[in-house]
TrEMBL record:
Keyword Metal-binding listed: no
InterPro entries, per the entry: AAA+_ATPase, ABC_SmlMolc_Importer, ABC_transporter-like_ATP-bd, P-loop_NTPase
Protein's name according to its UniProt entry: ABC-type quaternary amine transporter
Organism this protein belongs to: Streptomyces malaysiensis subsp. samsunensis
Domain of life (superkingdom): Bacteria
Gene3D superfamilies: P-loop containing nucleotide triphosphate hydrolases
PROSITE patterns in the record: ABC_TRANSPORTER_2
Keywords: ATP-binding, Nucleotide-binding, Transport
Location of region: Disordered: 252-273
EC number annotated for this UniProt entry: 7.6.2.9
Residues covered by the ABC transporter domain: 3-234
Amino acid sequence: MGIRFDAVTVAYDGNVVLDALDLTVATGEVMALLGPSGSGKTTALRAVAGFVRPASGRVFLGDRDVTDLPPHRRGIGMVVQSYALFPHLRVEDNVAFGLKARKVPKAELRARVAEALEMTGMAAYARRHPRELSGGRQQRVAIARALAIRPDVLLLDEPLSALDARLRSGMLAELARLHRELPEVSILYVTHDQIEALTLADRIAVMDKAFSAASTAASTAAMTSAPGEAARCRSSAAGLVPTSSSARWVSRYRPRTHTSASGSGGRVGTTGTVALPGVTRQRWRMAATAAWL
Ligand SMILES: Nc1ncnc2c1ncn2[C@@H]1O[C@H](COP(=O)(O)OP(=O)(O)OP(=O)(O)O)[C@@H](O)[C@H]1O
């Protein structure tokens, strides 16, 4: 199920963080939100999850306007940097948590927990407590918990940033595999890391505090329309330095979605988001349910 921000403005105490954000993530697409600290990436995710209410604009999941829905009715799975596992619950109970809250019948609950643990390679750790697991395994449990509710949309907020480099590259490969197994789940992936974005994403939206000088903390996303512009976009608009490997990737970008420009002036448009090489899509056999932990 796709995600659409329609002129979404979010302000904290009058401080504009998202300024009329227009952004569309297609069904089954991975969109990375890349950008410097404070540019509003997490806020964009929280607006989709329902943890912040836009001052104006609407958030759509598929055709559904979810702007006024509480988080648990949006059908979203979310994974954050800090795992956010319940320390007193075993792995299987952490994964089951959202299903219990949704009153999923016991037999189905057990099947779904087993399925999610299998998908994340954590079946052998079902009876452990989080403290008995490494950071990488804890994050797998958090991912399993998000998947157990069979979300239409997965929001990943720097899910790998607490892991060391070796674990991070392993998990990156795991996330890419999961995405192939769940081709109809749309993923919004917040990261500071260009390599993560380039590895996982079909498209990258670069968030930038382009308006900070003019209007306190307003943000916008600067995006490129032509493959060759990607490096420039990341370096000049977002203040990120393109690496030689990313530059090579850049040359392989193929523009995929282009809609009309949403104008200048802080508004974020889908115009010219950068499309990355896609992955083979397989059908996701899981039925979608509307649930949140
Ligand atoms: N609950 C809040 N109350 C007030 N200000 C907030 C709140 N949450 C975020 N902000 C501010 O909004 C701006 C954007 O924050 P946000 O966390 O969305 O950025 P980010 O791009 O995700 O940053 P980071 O990469 O550091 O996580 C920052 O200036 C931040 O201080």
